[in-house]
From TrEMBL:
One of its GO terms (molecular function) is acyltransferase activity. Pfam families: Hexapep, Mac. It is an enzyme of class 2 (transferase). Its EC number is 2.3.1.-. This is Sugar O-acetyltransferase. It comes from the Bacteria. InterPro entries: Hexapep (IPR001451), Hexapeptide_acetyltransf (IPR051159), Mac_dom (IPR024688), Trimer_LpxA-like_sf (IPR011004). Residues 5-59 form the Maltose/galactoside acetyltransferase domain. Belongs to the transferase hexapeptide repeat family. Keywords: Acyltransferase, Transferase. It comes from Amycolatopsis speibonae.
Amino acid sequence: MGEQKDRMLRGELYRDNDPELVEDRRRAQALVDRFNGTGAEETGERDTILRELLGKLGEGSWIMPRFQCDYGSLIEIGANSFLNYDAILLDCAPIKIGSDCSIGPRCQLLTALHPMEDHELRRARWESAAPITIGNNVWFGGGVIVCAGVTIGDDTVVGAGSVVTRDLPSKVFAAGNPARVIREL
């Protein structure tokens, strides 16, 4: 493993134009293109492609096209989980989705971060990433955005259009921008 990929996986600043990372993204994009090009009746082919692309795909889980990701290999999905149309998972850090989750259409899980205070580092295209962890039996309404470094507890529901910038505990309903706990479930 090269230095930039190692730095990325450790959550440190790295350059995404590193040849190894570029090649890893090209490999993932080729698989994503194949997946997104399948027909409705090709569920077996979709499953085969996802098992090659993702780090883990639990039994009974599925994703609807269009699906987008950076690397794929850093995504783990538990059993019986569902990602609806147009999911975007930017997996520059691990993304773990538990079992029995329902991810609504056009949801985004975004692990990438860019320097805020150091304008020169940002201009030079340095970035970092922080993992996202989603517990079991979580439901996201359509259009939810989960930001880097967030953990969401088991049995939590996040309302449509919410932007989750901080951790959410188990068994709550959260909504808004930024998402906040509305009530316990």
